[in-house]
Amino acid sequence: MKQFITFLFIFSAIFGFSQDDAQDRAELVVKKHLKGVFGEEYKSYGFSELYKTSTPRILEVEEIKSKIDVLRKSNLLTDSSLKAYEILIEQKIDTIKANQEFPTYDIKHYFVVKEDKTDFLYQTQFFLYPDGKIKDVNQIMKYEFVGKEYDWFYGYYRRNPVLPNDILENKKVYTYLDAMLEDPEDAESAMATVINTYSVISTKGYLDTVNLPRILAMKWIKKNTDDEITITEFSPVNTIQIDSEKVGYKLFVKYEMKGIEYAQYFEFDTQFILTGSLPVEKPFEPYFKK
């Protein structure tokens, strides 16, 4: 039995964080790395749960360990069966060590960094070795805050009540917003919609489905032009239908830049997440008919 316990201790020590502090240790590793990169400009805004990915052989060992625990609790673990499991685990661990197999851990993290007086919201995914060293980093999103968006994001992050007089509806709003950020196709577009949906509901007390796409379109134009712009006209917000099914919304925006008039077309999905944008050619009038 002592030999068997030693096997399990070595296996746990080499191939993973401990159960109790895995999340905290991973977060500390990530924070330390980012503070080293960005210094005092780095501000943490939350982590996902730590996710572990194991090789098939490691999973087999973990399954055997679980089976032994079940048998022990049920008083069904005999000396002969324990010895057989010890031998099997020893063989698998020898193979795992020989092949240098180990699980990896990944964790997603939101943080803000000020760069040249502009605040950016990052979402990154860190992949960690079992000893806590960083294996790889994947940048999922770099979102530039425009206007008061940082304030709105902070309110969303802090879970400030958007509908203070209706606790149930307030909870529904956050459930709706959080769902948009669960593995979106375009993380930046989804975040823009979440932030500005929060701002519209907080300001008006309801989801203004005319004002929201206008705000999103206007901010997209400002982010994607280097010069000062003036919005001069919005088209109606019309639905996009395929075989009588509503699949999204469309909007045209007219604006001026350096005395020249431009127009841009925008498409959104049913949650007003931007899915596409194209410039349109003159004449613009047909796009803006009421």
In short:
By secondary structure, the chain is an alpha+beta fold.
How many helix segments?
8
Taking the alpha carbons of the first and last residues, their distance comes to 81 Å
Shape: elongated
Structural class: alpha+beta
The number of E-state strands comes to 10
Largest sheet: 5 strands, antiparallel
Please, what is the average pLDDT?
Answer: 90
Q: What string gives the helices and strands in order?
A: HHEEHHEEEHHHHEEEEE
Strand content: 25-35%
Task: Name the features.
alpha+beta; five-stranded antiparallel sheet; 10 strands; 28% strand; elongated; disordered N terminus
How does this model look, in words?
The chain has 290 residues and is α+β, with helices and mostly antiparallel strands. Helices cover 43% and strands 28% of the residues. The protein has helices spanning 2-15, 22-38, 56-73, 79-98, 149-158, 167-180, 187-204, 211-223; strands at 42-47, 51-53, 104-115, 118-128, 134-144, 230-234, 238-242, 245-257, 260-268, 274-279. The radius of gyration is 26 Å and the shape is elongated.
